[in-house]
Amino acid sequence: MTDPLPTGATIGILGGGQLGRMLSVAAARLGFRTHIFEPGANPPAADVAHACTTAAYDDVAALTAFAQSVDVITYEFENIPTEALDILEAITPIHPNREALRISQDRLTEKNFLTGLGLQTAPYADIPDAAALTAALDTIGTPSILKTRRFGYDGKGQARLTSPEDAAQAIADMAGAPALLEGFVDFSIEVSVIATRSASGDVACYDPGENVHRAGILHTTTVPARLSASLRTDAVLLAARILNALDYVGVMGVELFVTPSGLIVNEIAPRVHNSGHWTQNGCAVDQFEQHIRAVAGWPLGDGQRHSDVVMENLIGDDMDRVPELAATRDTALHLYGKAEVKPGRKMGHVNRIIR
Amino acid sequence: MTDPLPTGATIGILGGGQLGRMLSVAAARLGFRTHIFEPGANPPAADVAHACTTAAYDDVAALTAFAQSVDVITYEFENIPTEALDILEAITPIHPNREALRISQDRLTEKNFLTGLGLQTAPYADIPDAAALTAALDTIGTPSILKTRRFGYDGKGQARLTSPEDAAQAIADMAGAPALLEGFVDFSIEVSVIATRSASGDVACYDPGENVHRAGILHTTTVPARLSASLRTDAVLLAARILNALDYVGVMGVELFVTPSGLIVNEIAPRVHNSGHWTQNGCAVDQFEQHIRAVAGWPLGDGQRHSDVVMENLIGDDMDRVPELAATRDTALHLYGKAEVKPGRKMGHVNRIIR
After folding, report:
1. Listing from the earlier edge strand, what are the strands of the sheet with B144-148?
2. What pLDDT, on a 0 to 100 scale, did the predictor assign at position B151?
3. Looking at the 3D structure of chain B, how many domains does it have?
4. What is the pLDDT at residue A355?
5. Where is the ATP-grasp domain (chains A, B) (predicted)?
6. Which of A88, A165, B69, B179 sits most deeply, having the most CB atoms within 10 A of its CB?
7. How far apart are the first and last CA of chain A?
8. Which of B2, B3, B7 to probe the A interface (max A CBs under 10 A)?
9. Digit-coded pLDDT (tens) for A134-156
10. Please, what is the angle between helix B18-29 and helix A18-29, to 10°?
């Protein structure tokens, strides 16, 4: 991309969930239109988009028409089939780029990429089969966790091993999918850096947030995180190294473990990230607008934190708390308009401003 | 209205301009869908709405279908034909209520209402004809301003009189429309209060903003306004008196002149207001969400100001400054996605955060 997209241009978004919805609102704020591509019916993002295509990722005609109707393509999730990307990219540029997708779609590739940059990760081993797991348990030991290389999120596609006897069940849980074994990391806290790189190569990071998970799903993110000034600098430099290495354009979420031996990269996500939702009420320009600015070739906006924030996800029945939360001071609600409440389903989030 | 609207409900919005657009985004943030009713093609609000009806205000079938498809109706402008309101209100509740619309649709009725509440306004006189103008000039004098009673905004439908000799031309400018004469007010500054009243009668006001106009159109709003603590209190109490008198539900913009003899009400607008756009970057809950909360029967949100802000409108060719503004620190852009730039047309606004 050379010239910035003019206001009035259309941004295509693959995926119509809550991230696509909030990206769409941010795009509108800069005068852009959005077109959502989503296989599922009635996606949350369609309520705030100029257009929505409901089609599968193997529908060549729909992918072609979508790509032809937009000026740039971005996405809200990383597990987009490669064949679909081939069709789209032949017509319209995609940001973040294919290399970022290729790496983040495969946990093993991602770990190899990160260690290749000189960054620390959890100990890991490729587990193509049961024999490889037996061998890997000798070096990595337990507790450890077996994960499918692809298509995992929010704790799905994972099996914990508390002793070597769990190996057979863990392999069975993978249902034949290629996997990797990760050793547990003894960390004090998990933080994440929401980093953005513009088309001209500028990198801006929001203040790191401190994450707490429940049942494998993000529960809260608190800013500022309890990080020393030097670790805060390390976190930001490390994120910038990743984005620069990928010639990345857009927002990336970088999850980090804080350990006595420094920061360990847990995982990267080539998209706006749940742990960056606090920016909506903590900064003049939030992560969604930063992402849109980057993919549109605009300069990055001002992501300086004006307020301390605790973001809490509203999962499933947490929606019952909405009337109470709506009446609470210093509280900003963000609901996703999902019709059906399901256990474990992300229904919204709330940003509490700490004064 | 008794029960709060549940998330997932649909809010109908009359008018598809930038105010409808920003209301629609705020509604989505609370999980509501919106349906826009707008006679003009490609309204800015349609890009961020679940549905849009393009039809005239005398299209009974379209009005009926629209009202039947939504759970509550609100509006972004006050000049909605009474006949349309009759059709809509027979099917679905409208907030703010008809009385607020009736009063604000007619400058004379509005002035009588305000003075009836014991509030100060500019001196004024009903001008049904040329003879009435001659008589009124004897008491009100010049400089003064002749305004149509209805359908004026942003300086339209107004004629200034610098001497009694201007009377004939001013009457001609009204083109037979009923008018009123307003005396000039010697004021130091103009401020506005963005006040909200919930369905349960709670009133919340944002900090008053200080307005500067250019060529009859709002140019900047600065918060905090240069107001003494006692005038600040007066402004808020006065706004609350207006809202309570009308049993009002929603956001109202109240423009006030600051004079040596206290606050004089310039005009009221029964809707979200351009001088309240700063709240998007100065508060956890902005005027658009407050309005949606009120009309949905929800409790009001936290409108405390966390940052000082200068809001500047981007009018016509100001759009040429967007690339520079996008690269400026402490600056949040809000563009309306209007296809065509015209002189005097509101294209967007920018909120500068003052640190």
Report:
1. B124-127, B179-183, B144-148, B158-161
2. 75
3. 3
4. 80
5. 111-296
6. B179
7. 42
8. B7
9. 999 999 999 999 999 987 666 67
10. 160
